[in-house]
Amino acid sequence: MRILLAAVLAFVLAPVLARAEGWQTSSPEAQAMSSRELAGLVEFGIANGMDSVLVVRHGSIVAEAYYAPFAPGMKHRINSATKSVIGSLVAIALKDGRLTSVDQPVLGFFPERSFANVDERKKALRLRHLLDMTSGLDWNEPLSGAFFESFVQMERSPDWVQFVLDRPMVREPGAAFDYNSGGPHVLSAILSKVTGRSALEYAREKLFGPLGIEDVHWRHDPQGVSAGGAGLYLQPRDMARLGQLWLADGVWKGQRLMAPGWIDTVRHASVDMGLGPLLRYANLFWSEPAKGAYLAVGYDRQLIAVMPDLDVVDRCA
Fold first, then answer.
1. What is the C-alpha separation between 32 and 223, in angstroms, rounded?
2. What are the sequence ranges of the domains in the chain?
């Protein structure tokens, strides 16, 4: 009962809190949504041990609930939804000319390093392969929920980038999807190379700053590289701001932040994830092209779902 009361109280207070943070709020019915259905979503969250639910339609918050011990104003560990933020920063670096193409070779960003198991396949590794989880590197991080061995080994290593790029190749880059949190971490290191600062610092200037996101924590590796695979902590309303940016094709208040076409590639993703007939992958996003929806997805149901045809952003965890 205490959890239910906390959730309902946060649900009731959400419009007042949101107005104080610059969000527009609305009754669900004013945005052609059902209060009854959204109340059912809140109840679903209670029954399934979720920590928060937030729904935005036509730019207005129509539902928001938090479940004890979570409360408004608390950051959440968004786990692998971090990857979509790294993808967005790559899109920003492309727009700004810091990167020239997703076809740039990965090893070329690290001329000062020597990596193990370098062969023609590893030399052919491009940024796009890291963005699409088709690197061809030997990696064990199944989406089935089994032990994600390679990810744990990477985080226990003294040099995460070295660990990832030392891995042998098991197939040609681009040949098949293989979930790999090491790839986005290498992309984070590449962002540091081309911008002269960490992904966190670059995001504060180019992404979080314009969106008004201030309350951020981002873990980093022993070399100070922002953890690209999973390491970002954000408040749910700030996750919704990211969703609104993606909904608007990378444009925020009339200003283009991300390279044009980036989100369109996500919406029409073609890399088969092997998780059924609908799910595809592109640019570090999960996508359902048949439904016109795409998601930033993290462990323990950390989700930012974007549904352009409905003009809806849904943050659930």
1. 49
2. 2-66, 76-233+248-298
- The CA-atom distances, in angstroms, between 176 and each of 130, 146, 220, 266, 310 are 12, 20, 29, 17, 32
| Domain spanning 76-233+248-298: CATH 3.40.710.10 | yes
- Joined together, the tokens standing for residue 140 give 């064990």
Find how far residue 273's CA is from the centre of its chain.
17
DSSP for 43-92 reads HHHHHTT-SEEEEEETTEEEEEEE-TT--TT--EE-GGGHHHHHHHHHHH
Q: Is the pTM of this model over 0.90?
A: yes
CA distances, 203 to each of 95, 243, 264 (Å):
14, 15, 22
Separation between Cα atoms, residue 156 and residue 274, nearest integer Å: 29
Check if the beta carbon of residue 86 is closer than 8 Å to that of residue 228. Answer: yes
- Mapped onto helix, strand or coil, the DSSP state of residue 288 is strand
Letter for the amino acid at 27? Answer: S
Question: For residue 50, what are its two tokens?
Answer: 């979720």
* pLDDT tens digits, 16-44: 444 446 799 999 999 999 999 999 999 99
CA dist., res. 261 & res. 274, Å (int): 25
CA distances from 234 to 164, 241, 242 (A): 26, 11, 10
265 three-class SS? helix
Tens of pLDDT, residues 163-217: 999 999 999 999 999 999 999 999 999 999 999 999 999 999 999 999 999 999 9
Rg (CA), the chain: 20
> What does the alpha-carbon distance between residue 311 and residue 316 come to, in Å, rounded to a whole number?
16
